[in-house]
Design a protein that fits this description.
globular; three-stranded parallel beta sheet; single chain; 379 residues; Rossmann fold; 2 domains; alpha/beta; five-stranded parallel beta sheet
């Protein structure tokens, strides 16, 4: 009786163990460490967040760049006697060579900071050098800055007699987005004022602050000599919105004006990148696609200037343009470049034109048919 009870108790207390779980494979772990989700948004699983909580990476480098350089200025004085020169900077990346260049050294001196290996410093210098290349840093020039926050450029421009509209998000939206908490938002003009670069009277005379959504630029912001943004367009919600902003910003400057923007860049041409998030990372393909969209001239002279810089496969020109009309443009085109004239006038096609299309009959299908004919039968 006792033995039976003990045996039954043993069977109840020690049930059969459950089957072992299936082994974890590399395929199971990869999604935990992937940089992005299928939507392009960052991978926010717990394991990835732990990996990202390394103290140096959690620092707000956009905020720290210029203030860090200012803190170092006492220990390491800014550059001494330097001279601005024409460089004609191409589109490019922040590199050690660029930061060590004589032009970056000059602009660090102008901003009263030492040369610091920090991409924020490069961005400020890049904007200044580009504007200098196009003779925009001069008294009376009108500039429009997007997402300026507390950056030093409005104060520097004001010191040179330039009239600046500095823009930032409305305070309510900036607070929701975290910009106020990180000290990068300007809700009043005095927050953008830097006394070591300009006196207050000159700043108040030359700088105005306006709240602007970069995804919806007001129509009255137009006619400026130049516009700029530093590390702002990647925060508009998606890669597409950032590219649209660049294109829309062109409308804020006069013909012949200058537009210069800096942004986050993923140096990997292929593979995943951050998209549809508070901060995105553009790739080479995005910038090349944008360049193709923007390669457009306002008149014949601008078209010839573009051709001198970048070869094209075909020119699509209006017959009537200010300055140099379509016929005069075609007469000066290289013989190897075919041209299509688009016009609403009842005129004969110029001898040099590969084809002529009427505006009131122009459709995508008709244009594609004409292009295929020119490609099949090159002149």
């Amino acid at each position: 009786m006792i033995r039976w009870w003990r045996a039954r108790k043993a069977r109840i207390a020690d049930p059969a163990p459950p089957p072992p779980p299936p082994p974890i494979t590399a395929a199971d772990l990869l999604p935990l460490f992937a940089r992005t989700a299928p939507s392009g948004q960052p991978n926010l699983n717990a394991l990835r967040q732990v990996a990202n909580m390394i103290e140096p990476l959690s620092l707000n480098i956009k905020q720290m760049g210029y203030s860090l350089a200012r803190d170092l200025a006492a220990a390491r004085p800014p550059p001494g006697n330097t001279r601005a020169r024409i460089v004609r900077l191409p589109n490019g990346l922040s590199t050690q060579g660029a930061i060590e260049s004589d032009w970056a050294t000059h602009w660090c001196g102008q901003l009263k900071i030492p040369v610091v290996y920090h991409r924020k410093i490069w961005e400020l210098c890049f904007v200044l050098q580009t504007l200098h290349d196009f003779d925009m840093i001069r008294p009376g020039a009108r500039g429009l800055g997007f997402g300026c926050g507390t950056e030093p450029l409005p104060s520097y421009f004001a010191a040179h007699g330039m009239d600046i509209t500095a823009t930032d998000l409305a305070p309510e939206e900036a607070s929701r987005s975290g910009w106020v908490h990180t000290g990068q938002h300007a809700s009043a003009p005095e927050q953008a004022f830097m006394s070591h670069l300009v006196d207050r009277e000159a700043f108040d005379r030359h700088v105005g602050l306006r709240f602007v959504d970069m995804n919806d630029i007001p129509d009255d912001l137009s006619g400026y000599d130049f516009c700029w943004s530093v590390c702002a367009l990647e925060h508009l919600g998606s890669i597409e919105k950032g590219l649209d902003f660049i294109e829309n910003s062109l409308k804020t400057v006069r013909p012949g004006g200058v537009v210069v923007h800096t942004t986050e860049f993923n140096i990997r041409d292929e593979g995943p990148t951050i998209d549809n998030w508070a901060s995105v990372a553009f790739q080479r393909k995005h910038m090349e696609g944008l360049a193709e969209r923007l390669l457009e001239a306002g008149d014949g002279r601008e078209a010839l200037a573009l051709l001198a810089q970048d070869p094209v496969d075909l020119v699509l020109a209006d017959m009537r343009m200010p300055g140099m009309d379509g016929s005069a443009l075609l007469a000066r085109l290289p013989a190897s470049v075919p041209a299509i004239i688009v016009t609403g006038a009842d005129v004969l096609p110029p001898p040099r034109a590969a084809a002529m299309l009427r505006k009131d009959e122009l459709t995508r299908e008709r244009l594609e048919f004409t292009l295929r004919g020119i490609i099949r039968s090159p002149s």
